[in-house]
Amino acid sequence: LSPTGTLALLGALLWAPWRALDGAPLAELSGDQDFQLFLHKNLEFTRKIKGDVGTLQHAVCETFQLCKEEELLLVRQDLGIPQAPLEQCHRRTFQADACFSQIRDGLRTYQGSLAAVLKLLPGHAGLVETLQLDAANLSSNIQQQMEDLGLATVTYPTEGPGPLPTFSSSFRHQVGGFFILANFQRFLETAYRALRHLTRL
């Protein structure tokens, strides 16, 4: 295949649902080495970010004794902490352009939300700021790769993620920080599975 033909074939496969992708021969995608390199680099990047979020979750647990999500669900309902959507990255509904767009947008949302965690854990300011920078860089990487592949950039309406909620007490701020990190960790796990799936085609 010519480079143009390979890219067209890759684009067609990426637009298919995961179920269809599961049957695609690896050889059809392995020719695009830049795309595979992008996936592997950003899998490692996502794993690093997940580890840093886990470190901050541990800090919240140790500092504020907020460790179990099920014990805080009632408070969560009142806080309005947004969960960035990633439904386009799940197996049954997978669309590469939409999934990448949601990962990109979600990373930007959490980059902003981490400001609440920064205020909550001043002793971990360096790690939080690194996490914000990493989220911004990964979002930019994905945007650039979408442009390089000629994938459509999808912009979803921002329903929830707007200004950070105003916490009326220090306890609610602590719980808010807990759920921002818990939501971010879930988001990263889904994004990681989506990227990993594409490396295995």
UniProtKB/TrEMBL annotation:
SMART domains: IL6 (SM00126)
Places the protein is found: Secreted
PROSITE patterns: INTERLEUKIN_6
Family to which this protein belongs: Belongs to the IL-6 superfamily.
Signal peptide extent: 1-23
Keyword Secreted attributed: yes
GO CC annotations on file: extracellular region
Name recorded for this polypeptide: MGF factor
The species this protein was found in: Cepphus grylle (Black guillemot)
Annotated transmembrane regions: none
Domain of life, per lineage: Eukaryota
Gene Ontology biological process terms in this record: immune response; positive regulation of myeloid cell differentiation
InterPro entries: 4_helix_cytokine-like_core (IPR009079), GCSF/MGF (IPR040117), IL-6/GCSF/MGF (IPR030474), IL6/GCSF/MGF_CS (IPR030473)
One Pfam family it belongs to: GCSF
